[in-house]
Amino acid sequence: MLTVDFDKLGLRPGDRVLDMGCGAGRHAFEMYRRGADVVAFDMDADELAGVSDLFHAMRQAGEVPAGAEADVKQGDALQLPFADGEFDRIVAAEVLEHIHADVDAIRELVRVLRPGGTLAVSVPRWLPEVVNWKLSDDYHHAEGGHIRIYTDHELIDKVTKAGRLNDGTPGDAMVYEGRDYAHGLHTPYWWIKCAVGVTNDDHPLAKAYHRLLVWEIMSQPRLLRLAGAVLDPLIGKSLVLYFSKPLEQDA
Fold first, then answer.
1. CA distance 193 to 197
2. Are residues 25 and 106 in the same domain?
3. Does any domain span residue 176?
4. What is the pTM of this model?
């Protein structure tokens, strides 16, 4: 289940890409399939072990183009262990809402992105997330859970200003390129979960809707794809923003 549109990101075979906060690796795997040189980055060693195993399995099964590379790296989003301008593309999907010092994390993403490169950032969308928080304290009080709700304007502002120097003068200012909304079918599921109890997986309504989502993900029936296309701009659970880093200009 992908959140980022890799065509809008401009991903090409051979690009060096960073999946920051990769989790179980869903975006990293797809970028690897598309022939990129992928680094899956996370602070969770157990998650990264599973991602590394699947990278190996994909290579063994011949699921990736010749020349594509993939590796995992454990570390802190506030101190990325990469050189300035190392990556052509960066994905940070559903991670910033978990980080207290989000501006510092965004600055690190901008630092390691090359001039001319592109960045995709996704976070929970404001309205669906507000409803979740209103329905359930447990939803956002869980350890490692969401600590803030972004508006579109706030996140765009934080990313476009992230390259400014400490004194406020322009540095590597980012350019906002556009937005998407994703996973409209998933929003009602989380409203249901928050209403009946986020850990109450056995509730009949939650179980029934979960089966619907599994059907959507595994079979992609046309009816549900059409429903998602209608619901995404209305109540899509994820906001996806795309940015580019301008090419360096001569002084």
1. 5
2. yes
3. yes
4. 0.92
